[in-house]
Every structure is written in structure tokens, then in C-alpha cells.
Amino acid sequence: MFSWLFNTLAGKILCTFAVSMVPIIELRGALPIGVGMGLDPWLSLVVSIAGNMVPVPFIILFIRKIFDWMKKFPKFAKIAEKLEGKAFKHEEKIKKYELIGLFFLVAIPLPGTGAWTGSLVAAIFDIRIKKAFPVIFAGVVTAGLVVFFITYGVVLII
After folding, report:
1. Per-residue pLDDT tens for 39-94?
2. Which residues fall within 8 angstroms of residue 52, CB to CB, at 6 or more apart?
3. What distance in Å separates the CA atoms of residue 117 and residue 31, rounded to the nearest whole number?
4. How many angstroms separate the CA atoms of 96 and 104, rounded?
5. Cβ neighbours of 104 (radius 10 Å)
6. 144 Cβ contact partners less than 8 Å away, ≥ 6 residues apart
7. 98-133 pLDDT, tens digit each
């Protein structure tokens, strides 16, 4: 039923795009998955970047309202507080380095970094979408290139 996801170009692109939107996995996981499914590495990079950027404006614009709603329910309140705590963990760096700090938070492809975390931090610290989006995009492209060269290097060796 889902064999077209892995056997067609459109399916591989859609799968890579969708995986890149998932928190934690994001571009870091999507790019190697795309290459592993047989996509051209450059196409996988572009699709992963595009997919990773889709949630960014929604997070920046709506996450605070969502957190306020979640805090009305005890079970969801814990999740909202945990995510806010994750953002406040980066408070010192963001206040000290501002947009450059946000860029590095997104650009370093390690667990706990990326577009989702950067968007969350931007929303929590009231960094306007006009300023945050281009910085997060630059960070995603940088992280994508790092992962690309690591992934493509491994593909060349194999």
C-alpha cells in the first residue's frame, strides 16, 4: 500500500520532506534518510531544508498561545513547562549573543538544537519573526550543509 513512498521519486521526496518536519529528527535525520532511499544528495538537502522550515513560522507565531492553553490542563502543563524550560536553558546565550546565538543554536546539528528549538527560543524571548526566520533559515542551511557533507562523504566511501 505504501510501497510508492519508497519506490517513486515523489514518494521519496514526500517521505524526506515529512521526516524533516518531525521534532528532534528534523533535517539531521531526513537528509541521510533521503540519500539512503536513493535520492540525489543535493535534492535530499533541498527537500530536507524546505521541510525543516515549514514548522518555523507556526512555532514562532503560536507556541506561546498553545502553551497558555496547555497550562490549563495538569497533564499538558508539565509538557509546556518542560519545553519552556528547554528554551530558558539557552537564555544566557540568547541574551548575550542575540541573533548570532540563535543562529548557532540552530546551525550546530546536535541533539537538542535545530529549527524547532530555535523557533521555540525565538518565541519565548519575543524575537520577531522578521528577524528570527532568516536567522533560523541560515542556521538550517548551515546544519544541512554539515550533515550533507558528512552523509555524502559516507556515501562516497561506501
Report:
1. 999 999 999 999 999 999 999 999 999 999 999 999 899 999 988 887 788 777 77
2. 20, 21, 26, 27, 30, 114, 115, 140, 144
3. 18
4. 13
5. 16
6. 27, 31, 45, 48, 49, 52
7. 899 999 999 998 888 999 999 999 998 999 999 999
